[in-house]
Amino acid sequence: PDTVLPNLLPMYARKSKHPSSELTLMTVGLRKCPRHRPELNILAFQPWTSLDIRQKVDAALDEFLTIVLKDHVYSWWRDLSEDEEFVDELRINFRFLASVLFRRMKKVDIPHLVTHKILHAGVQHIDLCIQAFEKAGYEGDLQQIVLDYMGSNIHCAMWSRKAELEYLRRLVESLFPCILPPQALNSNLIDRDQVTFLHMSTCALVRELLAGSVLLPTMDAIANPDLLNNLLLIFFDNTPPPEATEAPSPLVPFLGQFSQPRAHNQSCLHLKLKDVINPACQELLYPFMQFLKSEAAVNVLQFCLACDDFNRRILNPDVSQSECVELHAILKNLYQSYCAPTATDRIKFDDDIVEALREVVEGPPEQIVRLRTSTPLF
């Protein structure tokens, strides 16, 4: 037993202290797998993985974030440099932030939020206004009457416009562990002074953009009585919404187009991938492997190395029958490790590629030569 105390409540089953071994979107699929650290969760580094939305919604978000970059980043960055790498990094961070928020929003119980929180706060606010107006004898400016009635109990964000902006800044800072990539908060990668500078600059920019350009206008819109009245009219209107005149737009990766890099490295000094992953060149392969570990993508490197070795062997025109059997077993292991839906180190490939590999894996060993003229492993 897990405890020396007896279970005196037969109808109550204690929850297991050990997590289940269900498959998750981790670099390695099983929670109990000892091969990888549990913090190397692909969603912690790429929360947009397997996150699709309608194309029109994605285009609207793309347009909104593009306007934010144009008005609050390009307006001063163009005076410093024409390089797009800095803005490309911001695009990735914005995609990370929006993906995290979107995933959390999908978990929100909307009916519970409305009935237990929004309505409660709204009724409490109305009751406070009525009490303040009654105490003032139903005369004067309602807003000033409520502020005077609350006195020192007023929220700090209501002191002034400056206090409201400062409150939103502190609120955004408290969300940094949830909305920023782990690399932005990790202080074990490079020297302390450089990390402190990078951390402060990244956080300061994100904080100002979110607090001053997103949250503050949003709070102003929410506090607009005309907007609230229109929302209430729409909410209580029994008129059915107009029927859709066109089919729903297709699903696309969340902000995939927005995060596409605009900068292109034209330097003749850049390295090719085949030179970096060459096992004979450890001075390049080892740091690249350490980088992939920090990105929870070691399985991609392992697949590339195994696939490269497999390609060299299968392209041999003098491959024997015994070698075909051996290559078929290697391919089956590759498929089960990286391509199958239940693979522990699954990599997301196109469905047609996975299906082509599955047909070869489930076929006789002689069919392994089909891969010479097909595209799945190239």
Automatic annotation (TrEMBL):
Pfam families: PXA (PF02194), RGS (PF00615). Residues 54-240 form the PXA domain. GO terms for biological process: autophagosome maturation. One of its GO terms (molecular function) is phosphatidylinositol binding. This is PXA domain-containing protein. GO terms for cellular component: late endosome. It comes from the Eukaryota. PROSITE patterns: PXA.
